[in-house]
Amino acid sequence: MLCSAAFVLATPARAAAEGRPAPVTDATWDQVADCESDGDWTADTGNGYYGGLQIWPPTWREAGGLRYATRPDLATRRQQITVAQEILNEQGWEAWSACARDLGLLHDRPPAGTGPPSGGMGPSSAGTGPPSVNTGPRPADDR
Q1: Which residue has the higher pLDDT, 102 or 139?
Q2: What is the pLDDT of residues 33-75, one digit of tens each?
């Protein structure tokens, strides 16, 4: 818990100086969830991604989500946001590439010296495998 408290108290300037994204506001995470799952923090649509932010279970596990629940959809909104901030620290907005781009959080320009965009996103450490979060089109409403 001490680590979480220290993270929450980190200033945006300090976070940027350390090379990681600043903590994101709840309003921004709500916008991402609105895009990913129509704001349903308990989403389990059968597509292999869960929760409001549509997180892939291995990514949930790697980002420390198991301290809260076995899957994102079983965790609270606050817990999902806490884990999402860790995913953001590790992978950047590429983890939610389609929605982040739609929301103006991600731009197609790669940092200098990194080459062209990959055209898809995978776990940042491996570069292969399924995306960490659902980057495809949202399921159609059944309403």
Answers
A1: 102
A2: 999 999 999 999 999 999 999 999 999 999 999 999 999 999 9
Tokens encoding 41: 């923090």
In whole angstroms, how far apart are CA 76 and each of 27, 62, 67, 92?
A: 16, 18, 12, 22
pLDDT of 100 reads: 96
Nearest to 52 by CA among 65, 33, 26: 33
Instruction: Enumerate residues 6+ apart whose C-beta is below 8 A from 130.
Output: 48, 56, 122
Task: Measure the CA angle with vertex 60, ends 84 and 50; round to 5°.
Answer: 85
Torsion of CA 93, 105, 38, 12, to 10 degrees: 80
